[in-house]
Amino acid sequence: MDASNKAGVVWLWGSDPYGQLGSGCSAEHTPGRTSECRAAPSPLAFVGRSVRQVACGAYHTACVCDSGELVVFGRNVEQQLGLAPTKKPMPFVSNPKLVSYFAADRPDNTVREVSCGLYHTTVIVESGEVLEWGQDLKVPTPMKLPSEALQISCGGCSTIALT
């Protein structure tokens, strides 16, 4: 099927210095090089996945799939992608990666909504709980709210939630 006629397709364009457009750039890519740019919208392929919500930070992108899984790509210096910690952290991820913490086989922990800040990412999971990571939080960490979150929004270095 032609991507232009299909629902749930992510279209991306603009500057791509850290792989935040999911370009799959090679090892020869120099992170931070601003000449990497897509002038025209182009579709991002998710094999067998349809996306229902997208969010962009300064240099990273997050997509909520219909399954509630979270796919991320872009700069990861501050661990804003939420990928499992490794001995040698990946400074950037240019191919879309699933965040294993939000697996589709854990329905209470699937993502309802995502928002990206400058160096952090925040989600609401199906239970209404808010989790955040990046900056000083290396893994998804619950944020204590008095009741279920209905909506979230990240600013540069801040997050707000509506309960």
Mean pLDDT: 86
Q: Helix amount, in percent?
A: under 10%
Parts with pLDDT < 50 across at least 5 consecutive residues = none
Count every helix, treating DSSP H or I runs of 4 or more residues as helices.
Answer: 0
Radius of gyration: 15 Å
> What does the largest sheet look like?
4 strands, antiparallel
| Alpha carbon gap, first and last residue | 40 Å
SSE string, helices as H and strands as E: EEEEEEEEEEEE
Overall 3D geometry? globular
Widest sheet: strand ordering? 3-4-5-6
Beta content: 35-45%
Tell me which oligomeric state these chains represent. single chain
**Secondary structural class:** mainly beta
Strand count: 12
At a glance:
This protein is mainly beta and 163 residues long.
Description:
The protein is globular, with a radius of gyration of 15 Å. The termini are far apart. The strands form four sheets. It has a four-stranded antiparallel beta sheet, with no helix packed on it. With 163 residues, the chain is mainly β. The model has no long low-confidence stretch (mean pLDDT 86). The chain is built from no helices and twelve strands.
Write the layout of secondary structure elements.
Layout: E1 10-15, E2 37-44, E3 51-56, E4 60-65, E5 70-75, E6 92-98, E7 111-116, E8 120-125, E9 130-134, E10 137-143, E11 151-154, E12 159-162
Antiparallel strand pairs: 1-2, 3-4, 4-5, 5-6, 7-8, 8-9, 9-10, 11-12
Can you tag this structure with a few keywords?
163 residues, 0% helix, single chain, four-stranded antiparallel beta sheet, mainly beta
